[in-house]
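task queued by scheduler; priority normal; single chain, no ligands, no partner chains; default sampling; output format set to structure tokens
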Amino acid sequence: MIIFGCIQLILCQVPNYHKLSWISILAAVMSITYSFIGLGLSVAKVAAAQLNEGAEVTTTWPTVSEAQRLWKIFQAIGNIAFAYAYSTVLIEIQSSPAENKTMKRASFVGISTTTIFYLLCGCVGYAAFGEDAPGDLLSGFHQPLWLLNVANVSLAIHLIGAYQVFVQPIFSLVESSCRQRWPEVKFVTADHQITIPFLGGTGFHVNCFILVWRSAYVAVTTVLAMLLPFFNVFLALIGAASFWPLTVYFPIEMYIARAKLPKFSFSWMGLQALSLACLLVSLVAAAGSVEGLIQSL
């Protein structure tokens, strides 16, 4: 985690996120790589169990009560909700028609790909491990070691890119707000040219506020990750908190206002029913996540 934080300290100082677009592409490739590896190993485990004189593939979970099993199901719902949260890309959607069309195509491809991978890994992973399926699917395998190393390296690279995708909109929002609020403060607005020796006068611009603020953010999040290393539980909690308001409620209300749907019309009632159902999903996921966090602590 410390190494991860040090890498992010460097990457977060890039002033223009579009210069890091290659990281997003690399992260996507790495995600597909370790997903295929996990899927392939799960299929191999299921096949090996079937060839072993019809031995049972799935296992039982005798030490977990029905109530605990239900809490874990709620946590899993939160993990799924996190995968479909749109709040992290809202800041990237502009008003021009070209970008709207681009975002529609990107959303369709992204959601379709995500759904296929999650269904395959979830179903085949459950067939391989049953209720003993680990939070990190790859941790359930021990051989072949070289393939697992490739998968884990891919996972680490993916998370490095994912951190940037999540954090750069936050940086942009905070820094633009501070520049508007304190335009006369040089610490916030002034850039300083730093020349790199032996490179023919080549240099780069440094903003003191960006340097301090981004470094502090990375340091705090790294320390929190070390203090509370409960990845799946926090993932479910964040997903539960953001899924209904940002992915369901606000888009539906905006569509109703834009389309001028009359109250209690068929379309209006259908959308409200969808919103209510997703609210219930978020509530049960939040409850399961809080319970899981308490147990982890």
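post-processing summary
- The chain has a mean pLDDT of 81.
- The chain is about 70% helix and 5% strand.
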